[in-house]
Write a structure and sequence with these properties.
Helix content: 25-40%
CATH class of the largest domain: Alpha Beta
Strand content: 15-25%
CATH topology of the largest domain: Alpha-Beta Plaits
Oligomer: single chain
Number of domains: 2
Strand order of the largest sheet: 2-3-1-4
Structural class: alpha+beta
Distance between the termini: 34 Å
Number of helices: 5
CATH architecture of the largest domain: 2-Layer Sandwich
Number of strands: 4
Radius of gyration: 20 Å
């Protein structure tokens, strides 16, 4: 990946806040023309710093009002790309991460109701490398922040 400078970081933060912002709007924010901003965004896409553009849909808008965390345990070493490809196929899985600890991965799952959640968990359990799952239903969100990188903290301790 090519070197990413401060302007690139500012472009990335602007796009994370509003992926639909025009090149002119993003450029105005970072001090570039629309065409210079487009060239930088295109370079960031080619370099893999930007993997794509998508709509972030609120699960409730889909009628998916139930949320759960599913711990996934495998029956051996599973190639990362295999697990990622399989889990990506299930649109109800809104986040999946590998973890250190007893479980091999944690999944955040949304569903319309308990039968829908059961169908999703059944599909996960049907993957050939899944040994077991452990599901925890989530009740109320106390804090949820967007995944927007923060500006590095400034050390004022002197």
């Amino acid at each position: 990946m090519p070197s990413i400078d401060d302007i690139d970081h500012r472009i990335l933060r602007a796009l994370l806040r509003d992926g639909r912002g025009s090149f002119a709007e993003v450029g105005s924010e970072v001090g570039l023309s629309a065409s210079a901003t487009k060239r930088r965004v295109d370079r960031l896409v080619r370099a893999g710093a930007i993997r794509g553009f998508t709509a972030v849909v609120e699960p409730h808008a889909m009628g998916w009002d139930i949320e759960a965390v599913v711990q996934l345990y495998t029956n051996g070493t599973v190639p990362f790309e295999t697990m990622r490809a399989d889990l990506t196929e299930l649109t109800e899985i809104v986040e999946a991460v590998t973890v250190a600890g007893a479980a091999d991965a944690m999944l955040r799952v949304v569903a319309a109701d308990v039968p829908h959640l059961e169908r999703v968990i059944s599909r996960v359990r049907g993957l050939p490398y899944v040994q077991q799952t452990d599901t925890t239903m989530l009740l109320s969100v106390l804090v949820r922040r967007p995944n927007v990188p923060q500006t590095p903290a400034v050390d004022v301790s002197g």
